[in-house]
Design brief:
single chain; 250 residues; alpha/beta
């Protein structure tokens, strides 16, 4: 589900869960546990990446529909926990976006301190509103922190999945790398952040930078209720039928 290797003191966390690393209950819990353990452990920094053709395709909508409101009530805190574990980590966290980073996958990348994306066919974006569900408060805060309020509003409301070049121009990622050089580049950035900046200064400054966002994370109860409604009233299933069905028709 998650593979962890250590390279020169840098923890490489690779999502390896199904074809597209969809975020289900188990993966979200594993992400939170892994990141919090690494943040208190011996590694100097973390690189977060995916496997196959996807960094992460976001929330596992099939599990949401099948599990209904009870599953969502258990799942949403786990999703929030995964986002926060990355965002709150006091050590440098670099995303090596190896492919598609959609919805929750985009938020995972945005929660990192630096984002390197592979040039190629992968796309990145946050189409949550077109699924018919609101963003968890922590996801909104992460997107606004990463992009600024104006760009975050545009990305969230247009719901587009952008190519690597478009993502770089828009600020969704910080740089591009050739696929074969992606991990090496992400490791180099992580090493620079961990080596050039004293660890205590980095952790303290990161906490200062995140201060306003952390104080505003108080809207989870309403978000959870709306996700529970969406899981049972047909809107997610209708979205899946429109998008998946249209790709399957000749």
């Amino acid at each position: 589900m998650i593979e962890v290797d250590v390279s020169d003191g840098i923890g490489v966390v690779r999502l390896a869960h199904g074809k597209v690393n969809a975020l289900d209950l188990e993966l979200c819990r594993a992400i939170e546990t892994t990141l919090r353990d690494l943040d208190t452990g011996e590694v100097r920094a973390v690189v977060l990446t995916g496997s196959g053709r996807a960094f992460s395709a976001g929330v596992d909508l099939e599990r949401i529909v099948k599990g209904g409101a009870d599953y969502v009530a258990e799942y949403l805190p786990a999703l929030v926990g995964a986002f926060q574990a990355i965002f709150d980590a006091g050590k440098p966290v670099v995303a090596a976006v190896n492919g598609h980073a959609i919805a929750g996958g985009c938020v995972l990348a945005a929660a990192c301190d630096h984002r390197v994306m592979a040039a190629g066919t992968g796309t990145i974006g946050v189409p949550e509103l077109y699924v018919g569900v609101p963003f968890p408060a922590v996801a909104l805060e992460i997107m606004e922190y990463a992009l600024g309020p104006v760009a975050a509003r545009r990305v969230i409301l247009d719901g587009r999945n952008r190519t690597p070049a478009e993502a770089l121009a828009f600020g969704l990622v910080d740089e591009l790398a050739e696929p074969g050089e992606l991990l090496e580049r992400a490791l180099a950035v992580a090493d620079r952040l961990a080596s050039a900046i004293p660890a205590d200064a980095f952790r303290h400054t990161k906490r200062q930078l995140h201060g306003d966002a952390t104080e505003r994370l108080d809207a989870e109860a309403t978000t959870a209720r709306l996700w529970q409604t969406a899981a049972t009233d047909g809107r997610i299933r209708a979205f899946m039928d429109r998008t998946v069905g249209s790709r399957q028709r000749p």
